[in-house]
Amino acid sequence: MSRKEYVGIFKDKPDLEIQLTNDDIINITGMMGSGKTTLARQISKNKNIDFISLDWMFGASLKNRPDHIKQLLDSFIKEHPEIKNKDKYYDDADLIYDYLYKKLSPLKIFEGRHIYMYMDINTLKGKIIIKRTSLVHSYKRAFKRDMQHKIKEYKNNEINLVQVLNRLFERIKIPIKDYIMINQYINKMTSKIMKMEIKL
Predict the structure, then answer these.
(1) Which residues contact residue 24 at a Cβ distance below 8 angstroms, ignoring those fewer than 6 apart?
(2) Model pLDDT for residues 25-66, shown as the tens digit of each residue
(3) 69-74: long-range contacts, CB 8 A cutoff, minimum separation 24
(4) Model pLDDT, residue 130
(5) Do residues 141 and 148 touch, judged by C-beta distance below 8 A?
(6) Going from the N-terminus, what domains does the chain have, and what CATH number goes with each?
(7) Degrees (nearest 5) of the Cα angle 147, 164, 86?
(8) What is the three-class DSSP state of 25?
(9) Among 144, 22, 19, 91, CA closest to 152
């Protein structure tokens, strides 16, 4: 893989789009704060279809989880009672993705870090869009958004100051890990595409 395909540290790059299969699915992934949800909303509005944030399925953003997603997850758990008591379903990312693929309408938009962090690239169907917002810009957006949320919780007496500080230190560590993982993922995805082209 040439270095021009990597996510940069300071400079944003165009989204990397790769068609994996002929399925009518759009998968959007990238670092925290890279603009995944914003892009998913834009595509969703243009095509007049819903999008699925994988945060809703895997245990984060539960307060924002739409009712139809909760029903889907409840239905999934009924079919797979062995994972009923898990708070988060990271280990079952591929299983949940396949379930959503079968249950939802023909065109689907999935977005989330989970795609590059927990899913097997061979599970993905349709097209993948990898956001290549720079490390610096992604981090600034994610940090600002997350800390505003935590400060609001603190002011509402939902969490204490120690929890706010713990989140602050956690957020300082995440971007570097994210940056390494997304570039490793791009490397894997590029290798997969090269193998597909050789077979053709």
Answers:
(1) 106, 107, 108, 126
(2) 999 999 989 999 999 999 999 988 888 888 877 655 556 677
(3) 72/99, 72/100, 72/103, 72/104
(4) 97
(5) no
(6) 3-199 (3.40.50)
(7) 95
(8) strand
(9) 144
